[in-house]
Amino acid sequence: MRQQYLGSIAAAFFATSAMAASPMDLSIIDRAVADFTGAGIGQPGGAKLPVDRRLRLDDCQTPLDLQWFGRDQRSVQIACPTAGWRIYVAVDSRMGAASRFGQSHGEAIVKRGENVSILVRGNGFTLTRQGSAVEDGAQGEWIKVRVNGKRAEALRAMVIRPGQVGIDLP
């Protein structure tokens, strides 16, 4: 009788803990990738496809860690340090390749006043903030940008692609 009682308690405990571990809402990952790349799903520079809805990932209790993966930045690595999972999302790099090779001599791809994603990259992390360009700039040029909602001085960032600038930390 006592073993049966302990078995019931153990079963109830495991059932409760299984319900508490809810799965990750994959649309949160899709939005995080769009914010990170500065482009929506299916757009040049954005994710090729949404995250596969068949995935069952544990809910992430901390902010997602996003960073470029691969030498040509053809995918984004998304990790949840607390849940222990990591996935990769393929990025449509057509715009990246076109702007690297087909851009005519110094043609501005970021215009003054345009909203941009500002990527700050360091060893093992990438932060993304939204801002606006203070100057026009072609790919590879350094321009001034200002973080949205801040009256701070303008930052200098390199134009990566349309709508995206970056700062690499040592």
Automatic annotation (TrEMBL):
Name of the featured protein: Flagellar protein
Organism: Erythrobacter aureus
Example GO BP: bacterial-type flagellum assembly
Translocase recorded as keyword: no
Signal peptide (residue range): 1-20
Transmembrane segments: none
Span of domain Flagella basal body P-ring formation protein FlgA SAF: 107-166
UniProt keyword terms in alphabetical order: Cell projection, Cilium, Flagellum, Signal
